């Protein structure tokens, strides 16, 4: 999948509703304060980077990705105040405590050493780290994640809730909490009704969101 196809998926059909649902949960767990800075690790096309900057009206948002083609696409899609750069999430080129917040949305599922990437995010964040992952114990895994994955999910690592929490084990963080979203694949009436009725604390959603406050 190229960056144009990836971004287009979020702009129409099921992808539009799913993207907005994931962004809403992300914003609720970040709880961005006025004037805070934010780093988006593995920003890809900048879909969530743009959404975070627009929703919070902050001008201190930086998205980084290891793929220069996707970074270039993100820059062209978002020619405003949001900045983008090429960087490896496993070796972030920033000083300790450089940002108030650090996020990564379903990017660590494709990183060779995801634990190292989490350590780097905790190192550069002053207040909070939020990580989005794929849930192995979800209906969506059954459709898209089995046998090495299919489509955009090929080669992705799907986590259990326990594995997700363990990514923060031993690191200088506290108040670790986990929520999930997108409990039923698609965006039809049944999927939307399930999303309203099932609490985010239930660990059956395809989208895992893990938040931790930095000590």
Characterize this entry briefly.
The chain is α/β, with parallel strands linked by helices and 215 residues long. The chain is built from 8 helices and 8 strands; from the N terminus they run ααβαβαββαβαβαβαβ. The protein has helices spanning 3-9, 13-30, 47-56, 68-77, 114-124, 139-145, 161-166, 189-197, and strands at residues 38-41, 61-65, 83-86, 99-105, 125-135, 158-159, 173-181, 207-214.
Question: What report would you give on this structure?
Answer:
The model has no long low-confidence stretch (mean pLDDT 93). The chain is of the alpha/beta class. It has helices spanning 3-9, 13-30, 47-56, 68-77, 114-124, 139-145, 161-166, 189-197; strands at residues 38-41, 61-65, 83-86, 99-105, 125-135, 158-159, 173-181, 207-214.
The secondary-structure element order is HHEHEHEEHEHEHEHE
Largest sheet: 8 strands, mixed
The counted number of beta strands is: 8
What is the third-level CATH name, the topology?
A: Rossmann fold
The helix-and-strand class reads: alpha/beta
CATH level-1 class: Alpha Beta
Task: Write down the overall geometry.
Answer: globular
How many separate structural domains?
A: 1
Q: What is the assigned CATH homologous superfamily?
A: Vaccinia Virus protein VP39
* Cα Rg: 16 Å
Number of helices: 8
| Percent helix | 25-40%
Q: Name the assembly state.
A: single chain
Proportion in β-strands: 15-25%
Uncertain runs are none
Named at the architecture level, the CATH assignment is: 3-Layer(aba) Sandwich
